Structure formats: C-alpha cells, structure tokens
Amino acid sequence: MTKNHRRHLAFTLMELLLIVALIGIMVSIAIPRLNHEMISQGQCEATAQHFAGICRLARSWAIGLGGSDNSGIQVTVTLPKGPYQIVKVSDSSTLRGPHPVPNPITISGDTTFHFNRMGTLEDTTSRSATFSDGVTQETVTVSLIGHIKVS
After folding, report:
1. Are the CB atoms for 125 and 116 separated by under 8 Å?
2. What does residue 68 show for φ and ψ, rounded to 5 degrees?
3. Which of 38, 47, 75, 120 is 20 to 30 A distant from 144 in Cα terms?
C-alpha cells in the first residue's frame, strides 16, 4: 500500500514537460505585447519632452532678443500629426525645425506658444499641447509666466 501511495505524490516527466511547454507558449504571447506597450509609452513621453525642450529654447531665444525685437518667438504646431517648429514672429522665419511627430502619436490642444522678450506668454491664459498614442498621453503646459511642465 505504501508503494502505491508514493506513486501518486510525484509528477511524471510527461506532466512536467507539458506544464513547461504551456508556460513557454504563454510567455511567448505576452512578451511582445508588453514590449510594444512599453515602447509606445516611451515614445509618447520622449516626444512630449522634446516638445517641452523646444518650448524652453524658444523662450530663451525670446529673452535673448531683448529690446532688439519686440515681436518675440513662437512655437507653432500643426495638429493632429505635427510637425512643430520655432518661428521668429517679426519675419516668419523658421529658426528650428520642423520636427516631425512619430507614428502613431497625435497632438491636440493649442497650436501656438508665443513668447515675448520677457519670456512670458503673449496670451491671457496658459497654453497646452497633449501628445497621445491611443494608450498613454503626456501634456506639455506653458503657464503665463513661461513655466513649462510635462505631466
């Protein structure tokens, strides 16, 4: 009786191989899906951070112009797929860009971020642009005083 009892306590080699094979199949399905979502999220965040950097650069150029040019510098955005660029307002010349927006990211929100020689916005309210890939989204907000934040 003890001999039969021992036989039922252990797994057979066939049962163990079947479990390992099932785990392998499940992992091979799950990893590409997780990898795609992580890449997509990283791409959306990187695009928003790049746009925030372009806004900071435009703001610093507007301050640098000082008294020589009262019209300022602006960042213009083409919705919904980009590109975005830095433009000198006085002569509409492009100073930096255009910067393309990678697929599948789309942009929504404001289309111009106009900085004056004090580094503040030439608007009565803050401005924002939201970058989305359908799953995640990042918003770049520029306050009236020129503070630029990504959230």
Report:
1. no
2. -75, -20
3. 47
State yes or no: pLDDT of 95 exceeds 70: yes
Instruction: For 17-37, write each residue's pLDDT tens digit.
Output: 999 999 988 888 777 766 666
DSSP string over the chain: -HHHHHHTTS--HHHHHHHHHHHHHHHHHHHHHHHHHHHHHHHHHHHHHHHHHHHHHHHHHHHHHGGG-SS-EEEEE-TTT--EEEEETTTTEEEEEEEP--TT-EEEE-SEEEE-TTSSBSSSS-EEEEEE-SS-EEEEEE-TT--EEE-
Whole-model pTM: value is 0.74
Share of the chain above pLDDT 90, in %: 49
- Whole-number percent of the chain with pLDDT over 70: 86
Pick from 127, 107, 121: which is nearest to 50 by CA?
Answer: 107
Q: Please check whether residue 73 is in contact with residue 62, taking contact to mean a CB–CB distance below 8 angstroms.
A: yes
